[in-house]
Amino acid sequence: MKSNKLTRNILIAMVLGISVGYAVHELVPKESISSFSSTVKLLGTIFIRLVKTIIAPLVFTTLVVGIAKLGNLKTVGRVGGKAILWFITASLTSLLIGMLLVNFLHPGTYIDLSLADNAGVKDLMGKTSAFSLSNFIEHVVPASAIGAMAENEILQIVVFSIFFGIAAASMGDYAKPVIKTLDVFAHIILKIVNYIMNFAPYGVFGTLAAVVADKGMGIFKFYFIYFSYFVCGIICLWMVLLFVGYLILGKRLVSLLKHISNPLLIAFSTTSSEAVFPKLTEELERFGCKNDIVAFILPLGYSFNLDGSMMYMTFASLAIAQAYGIHLNVGTQLTMLLVLMLTSKGIAGVPRASLIIVLATCAMFKIPPEGVALILPIDHFCDMMRTATNVLGNALATSVVSKWEGALDNE
């Protein structure tokens, strides 16, 4: 009942946010809109920051406890192997759908070069660098566990947590007091989640009101075809994911979708995968996934299994090339796909993280990276779709691995 109330409040907040934003865009003097947007956006910022404060400790505690409860290295390797198999297959499928869709529909040819958001892209360009093996290693391997947690570097936290969990599991009874303490700590954090989620409708209202006040509803007119084609790609990806999910989970898939409907809605409206990590953990356990499997697979998924973001990265990169009239042969596109497979791992589940990877990829393949400015005006709405897809993909991955392990409780 409480979950239904939250869902209702979020939906109301979405409608109010768009309505207020549109009214401000139409009625308030142009010079005052920026001030309104920056102020009301603080509501969304507060919500995201509240969630981010608990991400690092939650990932660390749940992953360590999950690995320790699995019992031994053989079990960890088996479960991890099944998860990686799903992640790689889902990632390649997502990338290929994006690549095929762009080559078939040519969305880049509809992008108007005069609508570029050059100011917005400058902020993103300061956060990216050319891909290299050295940068990749630095991105994956933590120099400091405390530093990784302070910066919310999820992939680095996952790496440290895996080592910690395996070491604790190998020590047997001697490490049990530490594992029990971390388990209690994880449950305390999940309790905090319930408090933070009460602020979600305010965050949703602030986020949508700000973007609509700035851009207005007319943005959909200019970018209707580009956005529509991307939505087609998301629908195709959802159909593939749900079909495979049904083959494995059967009728339990409907129950899973009911359980994750609230996290999906929050992810869709806030454009942040991180915002729903705690709530998604809770709902997957309610669905019937064993807590040790959830604690192990879900943090890995947040680093290795962002299906919506993966599809968008090929879609956006190739669309930008089309907008500038740059032809990329099939071999080059497949190379780009493999590069994206590597560079995308561990990207933060926060708004516009995918665009940072797109920038780096464009620069590598001699596509003007400034072209990202062409898609920035509509990116918030694309981000809503791909973030919800990331959540769906990780929920399916966790449920499927639980099913394969015989660790999915019956309702």
CATH architecture descriptor name? Orthogonal Bundle
Work out the count of structural domains.
1
CATH H level: which superfamily?
Sodium:dicarboxylate symporter
Order of helices and strands: HHHHHHHHHHHHHHHHHHH
Q: Estimate the helix proportion, in percent.
A: over 70%
What fraction of the residues are assigned to beta strands by DSSP? Answer: under 5%
Low-confidence stretches: none
CATH class: Mainly Alpha
Q: How many helical elements?
A: 19
Question: How many angstroms separate the termini?
Answer: 18 Å
The biggest beta sheet reads: none
Per-chain topology:
Blueprint: H1 2-27, H2 30-70, H3 73-105, H4 118-125, H5 133-140, H6 145-150, H7 154-170, H8 176-197, H9 200-215, H10 219-222, H11 224-249, H12 252-259, H13 261-270, H14 277-287, H15 291-304, H16 307-323, H17 330-343, H18 353-364, H19 372-404
Helix pairs in contact: 1-9, 1-13, 2-7, 2-8, 2-9, 2-15, 3-11, 3-15, 3-16, 3-17, 3-19, 4-19, 11-16, 11-19, 13-19, 14-15, 15-19, 16-17, 16-18, 16-19
